[in-house]
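Colleagues,

For the teaching module next term, I've prepared a clean inverse folding example: a structure given as tokens, and then the sequence designed for it. I'd like students to try predicting residues themselves before seeing the answer, so please don't circulate the second half yet.
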């Protein structure tokens, strides 16, 4: 099958190759995200990539970056996606466009606008309501992609539909992808459409819809021993569908990309070779923690280019691989993997433990590349031999060294006509990584890790001149041997007077090889190095402490919303940033609250009771209890909530990790009584998991044994048990919540015979208030499926009074900046270290100058118990949470203790920095030790 749309597409995903304007191409494609890089640096990043051999970029287009609120579209300034595509065309990079609607990318909500969460839609499915909203997004973004697609003046060569749909519980992937495909076609997209599988579910990800190519994302351990076998399975499966193997995402190590190339991949797409920053409130939360994780503002998985634009060592590996690909050109772009049959043809002799391969890639027009990979941590001496043959001519060269953690692509039987000469490159133990053809002949560059041999089949040459090598001729065979201790060279003059030049260096020199000058001298560069010494960049540090127990917008009464009950922020049109919930507990009948229960809270909740700080928690959409340290009966409650970001995954382990999860809180209750209900439960042992209603109703249980909750010793695996207990609800309370602390069993809760729901191990709080009447007896029944060795936990009851009289206010980036400026009236000169009392908040100000190079700064922060929101000239450039107590979540994605100040955002070489400080450790002071500035 040829993946072609329209009359004659400029791009085709043929079964044997990707063809662009009829030219077969291997796409070496790096992620480069305009929304994570200042616009002034887009071209620089593209040129950096291109200089290190990449010919393509993949780019997501985040829907919620361009529609910040329903119907409010922005494609200007930093959000000018058209300008980004135009720049890519100017630079000459192909673009793999990924407009979603869902993109993942560890981005707020996977780029789905948060207002969608209030609409009752089935997200990412064949749902008419959801697709109506998607069509509004596609009406904006697809015309841009059409305008810049290949064949119409641009370089967009493919358009992805959704993203890793097989990770999501889509009920109708075929219908959903069909709908997205039809929208793309209606908007005039003629380049190929594709859908990527995140965990190998080609059908679940693409629906196997006509005119949509299934592609693969692979994230293995780079040294996974059976990786090629897995990839070849998908290569074969796609070949059956007449599609090429396109790897749209994978790890950043070129070691792994070589292994993918050996399996016939036509697109090599390492994810995030160009790092960036989640500016503003664009971070995500996801399941990379225990399970909750917050994504850092620094978005950096260690790729070739750092967020500030520094070239890393891996970039030189990329250039080496790109030169290898270019050396073999179209025959490699059209190559077919021999796959598992390679082992029937070739074997590895010698020290071959944890050496995989050889995997043969058969080039169009003749010859093969033999890929050999050393998975071990030590160097190996090996020989490649033809299976079942012992003749010396049946080896692919002499023995050679393959270093630890290396993957080599060695030539075998390559016609020299590929480079315009007669003859054959029979074999080489050194990797050919570059070929240059001129009117006078050909230069071939090889790298080696020790001694070895290059074997050529040539008609008797006129002259062979080796340097630091030896040449031995036998009939029409010429063997060049070298010891690898120093650079080697061989000049071969053929019968027609043309020259074949062989350059042989060690691998390190190959990495930094820049070319050959007019005198035939090889030129080498060196690794880019950057200063890590702190410099004086900031002066005039000043601090302004303000009331943490009041909303920032307290002075603006019109900014407050009043509501009878607490509800999620999205229901109030608040989609990002900070919010403040204020409420009061009217009466606790003279009982001083022992603590406050937060209901269904996320992401960061800092609680103040009667003006006193109670603590900061990150419940992940679940509930949390904060004890109070004083006996004050002031009923005022304030919760400062920060939306760190909507989940970019869908994980059922925590409510806040669902893709449809909203943010904020659903209520606060002043807890006047806590009871440990873990003891003296009646238990009934059942034979199977069939739910028996007679055991749930308040039937006679007088003969049931009395044990602690989950304490019945049973030989069953799993054990099916019913536990029952009664308590009398306290007078004056209107809130009752059970906590099944530490439970690791499946459980269903019933109150007075009515099912309340499942008990969730990661969110073990269950609100039973609507089933309870104050002063009356309440019977609890819990059906438990216990697995041997796993605890059922303890049961606690929280009784109290619900807060009422709610008001909600919010602040995004602009409001934070406005408050920072207004708070300057209280500022005072400040030196480090800075101490804040628990729960205290302050603005920290500094005046900074741009770095000497005009590229800005990397600021490294030291301290503990403090959260920081950093603004440069009114723009949020970083959000950090320094090491603190147990309520601090796992942070993932990049540096957790530094932020980037882009030089492009300085004005006349100067930049004002304002940092919102929050002391979040309940039991000790927050300490900001230092902020050091490293020149970019």
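(Answer key — instructors only)
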């Amino acid at each position: 099958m040829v993946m072609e749309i329209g009359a004659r597409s400029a791009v085709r995903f043929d079964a044997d190759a990707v063809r662009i304007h009829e030219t077969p191409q291997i796409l070496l494609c790096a992620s480069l995200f305009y929304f994570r890089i200042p616009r002034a640096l887009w071209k620089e990043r593209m040129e950096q990539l291109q200089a290190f051999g990449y010919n393509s970029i993949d780019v997501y287009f985040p829907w919620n970056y361009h529609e910040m609120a329903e119907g409010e579209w922005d494609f200007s300034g930093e959000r000018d996606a058209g300008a980004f595509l135009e720049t890519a065309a100017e630079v000459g990079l192909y673009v793999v466009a990924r407009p979603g609607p869902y993109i993942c990318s560890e981005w707020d909500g996977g780029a789905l606008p948060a207002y969608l969460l209030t609409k009752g839609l089935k997200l990412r499915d064949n749902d008419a309501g959801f697709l109506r909203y998607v069509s509004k997004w596609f009406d904006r973004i697809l015309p841009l992609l059409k305008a810049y697609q290949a064949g119409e003046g641009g370089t967009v060569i493919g358009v992805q539909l959704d993203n890793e749909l097989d990770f999501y519980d889509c009920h109708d992937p075929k219908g959903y992808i069909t709908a997205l495909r039809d929208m793309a076609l209606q908007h005039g997209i003629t380049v190929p459409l594709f859908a990527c599988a995140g965990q190998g579910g080609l059908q679940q990800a693409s629906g196997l819809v006509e005119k949509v190519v299934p592609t693969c994302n692979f994230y293995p351990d780079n040294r996974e021993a059976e990786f090629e076998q897995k990839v070849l399975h998908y290569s074969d499966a796609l070949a059956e569908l007449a599609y090429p193997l396109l790897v749209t995402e994978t790890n950043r190590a070129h070691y792994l990309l070589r292994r993918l190339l050996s399996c016939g991949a036509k697109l090599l797409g390492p994810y995030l070779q160009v790092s960036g920053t989640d500016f503003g409130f664009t971070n995500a939360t996801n399941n990379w923690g225990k399970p909750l994780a917050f994504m850092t503002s620094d978005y950096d998985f260690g790729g070739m280019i750092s967020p500030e634009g520094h070239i890393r060592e891996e970039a030189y590996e990329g250039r080496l691989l790109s030169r290898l690909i270019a050396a073999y050109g179209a025959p490699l772009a059209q190559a077919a993997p021999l796959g598992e049959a390679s082992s029937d043809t070739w074997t590895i002799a010698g020290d071959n433990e944890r050496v995989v391969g050889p995997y043969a890639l058969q080039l169009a027009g003749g010859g093969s590349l033999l890929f050999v990979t050393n998975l071990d941590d030590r160097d190996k001496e090996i020989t490649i031999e033809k299976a079942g043959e012992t003749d010396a001519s049946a080896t692919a060269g002499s023995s050679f060294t393959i270093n630890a953690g290396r993957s080599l692509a060695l030539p075998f039987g390559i016609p020299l006509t590929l480079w315009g000469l007669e003859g054959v490159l029979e074999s080489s133990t050194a990797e050919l990584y570059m070929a240059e053809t001129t009117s006078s002949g050909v230069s071939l560059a090889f790298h080696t890790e020790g001694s070895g041999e290059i074997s050529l089949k040539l008609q008797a040459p006129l002259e062979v001149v080796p340097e630091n090598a030896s040449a031995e001729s036998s009939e029409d065979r010429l063997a060049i041997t070298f010891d690898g201790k120093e650079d080697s060279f061989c000049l071969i003059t053929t019968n027609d007077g043309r020259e074949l030049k062989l350059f042989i260096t060690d691998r390190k020199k190959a990495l930094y090889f820049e070319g050959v000058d007019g005198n035939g001298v090889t030129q080498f560069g060196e690794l880019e190095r950057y200063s890590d010494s702190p410099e004086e960049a900031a002066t005039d540090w000043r601090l302004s402490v303000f009331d943490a127990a009041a909303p920032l917008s307290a002075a603006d009464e019109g900014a407050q919303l009043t509501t009878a009950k607490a509800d999620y922020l999205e229901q109030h049109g608040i989609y990002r940033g900070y919010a403040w919930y204020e409420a009061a507990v009217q009466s606790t009948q003279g009982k001083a609250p022992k603590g406050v229960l937060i209901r269904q809270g996320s992401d960061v909740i800092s609680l103040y009771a009667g003006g006193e700080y109670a603590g900061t928690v990150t419940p992940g959409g679940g509930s949390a209890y904060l004890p109070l340290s004083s006996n004050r009966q002031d009923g005022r409650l304030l919760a400062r909530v920060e939306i760190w970001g909507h989940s970019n995954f869908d994980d059922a382990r925590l409510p806040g990790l669902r893709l449809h999860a909203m943010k904020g809180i659903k209520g606060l209750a002043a807890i006047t009584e806590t009871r440990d209900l873990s003891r003296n439960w009646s238990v009934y042992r059942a034979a199977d998991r069939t739910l028996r209603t007679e055991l749930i109703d308040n039937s006679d249980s007088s003969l049931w044994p009395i044990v602690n909750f989950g304490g019945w010793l049973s030989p069953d695996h799993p054990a099916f048990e019913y536990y029952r207990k009664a308590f009398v609800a306290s007078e004056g309370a209107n809130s009752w919540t059970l906590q099944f602390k530490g439970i690791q069993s499946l459980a269903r809760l019933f109150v007075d015979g009515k099912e309340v729901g499942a008990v969730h191990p990661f969110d073990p709080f269950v609100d039973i208030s609507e089933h309870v009447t104050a002063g009356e007896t309440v019977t609890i029944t819990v059906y438990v499926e216990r697995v041997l060795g796993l605890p059922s936990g303890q049961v606690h009851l929280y009784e109290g009074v619900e807060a009422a009289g709610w008001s909600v206010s919010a602040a995004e980036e602009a409001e934070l900046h406005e408050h920072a400026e207004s708070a300057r009236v209280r500022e005072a000169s400040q030196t480090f270290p800075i101490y804040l009392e628990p729960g205290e908040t302050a603005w920290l100000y500094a005046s900074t100058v741009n770095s000497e190079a005009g590229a800005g700064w990397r600021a490294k922060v030291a301290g503990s118990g403090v959260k920081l929101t950093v603004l440069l000239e009114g723009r949020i450039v970083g959000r950090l949470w320094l090491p603190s107590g147990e309520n601090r979540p796992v942070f993932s994605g990049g540096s957790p203790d530094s932020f980037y100040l882009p030089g492009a955002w300085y004005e006349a070489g100067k930049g004002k920095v304002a940092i919102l400080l929050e002391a979040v450790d309940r039991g000790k002071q927050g300490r900001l030790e230092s902020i050091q500035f490293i020149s970019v």
